[in-house]
Amino acid sequence: ARTTVLPSSHVAMLSHPNEVAKVIEEAAAGRDK
Known about the structure:
It is a single chain. Helix content is 52%, strand content 0%. By secondary structure, the protein is mainly α. The chain has one domain. The radius of gyration is 10 Å and the shape is elongated. It starts with 11 loop residues before the first helix and ends with a helix.
């Protein structure tokens, strides 16, 4: 498991869509850094 923290005052998927997409893509690829 991995926890990712993004500085955000509201829903991270709306305020940081590129960062959230990167986390999802890495999880789907099986990468855990």
